[in-house]
Amino acid sequence: MRIDKFLWSIRFYKTRSIAAEEIKKNRVSIGTSAVKSSKEVKEGDTIKIRKNQIDYKIKVIQIPKSRIGAKLVPLHIQDVTDKEQYELLKLRKMSQDYYRNKGEGRPTKKDRREMDEYVGNDIDSDFTDWDDFFGETDSEDGNED
After folding, report:
1. Mean of the per-residue pLDDT values for the chain?
2. I need a surface site. Which of 1, 48, 71, 79 has the fewest CB within 10 A?
3. Among residues of the chain, what percentage have pLDDT more than 90?
4. Cα dist from 144 to 75, 132, 137, whole Å
5. Rounded CA separation 86/75 (Å)
6. Residue-level pLDDT at 85
7. What is the distance in angstroms between the CA of the first residue and the CA of the last residue of the chain?
8. What is the C-alpha to C-alpha distance for residues 70 and 47, in angstroms, rounded to an integer?
9. What phi and psi values does residue 65 have, to the nearest 5 degrees?
10. 14-30: pLDDT as tens digits
11. Contact in structure between 57 and 81 (CB atoms under 8 Å)
């Protein structure tokens, strides 16, 4: 099976074209050599993949016939990625949780909605009738000055 199709079928990439692009950018290699999309994958190969600034290593156990479900992936590959790589990924995610301190810069869309919810409801309920607000009353007998 071609390597781009293999990486797509084990759900490492969402589409086959994305897998082919990553291979073109030399982010995928078998052993120590970079490969082309047409490279055939065999059982026992170790594939090194650079994704999200992490070097993943997977060992091919079995070649699937077509795209497989997520639960069946462990039957076809074995993850031999270093634990240090996963720790790096966890640290990066933790450092990117919140990038700005409260009160700095423009409000985000979420902040804006919270402010509108807090302020907006009180104003709308207080000023529903403008005639009452300005002190004017409707005279029923039709006398206007």
Report:
1. 82
2. 71
3. 38
4. 88, 17, 11
5. 21
6. 86
7. 91
8. 19
9. -75, -35
10. 999 999 999 999 999 99
11. yes
**What is the signed CA dihedral for 69, 63, 58, 54, rounded to 10 degrees?**
-60
Distance CA 98, CA 101 (A): 8
pTM: 0.61
Backbone angles phi, psi at 14, to 5 degrees: -70, -40
53, with CB counted inside 10 A (0-12, 13-18, 19+), is exposed
At 29 the pLDDT is 92
Q: Name, in order, each residue with C-beta under 8 angstroms of 58's C-beta and a sequence gap of 6 or more.
A: 10, 12, 46, 47, 49, 77, 78, 79, 80, 81
Q: Which amino acid is at 128?
A: T
CB-CB contact of 17 with 38 (8 Å): no
Look up residue 76 and give its two tokens. 């076809």
The helix/strand/coil state of 48 is strand
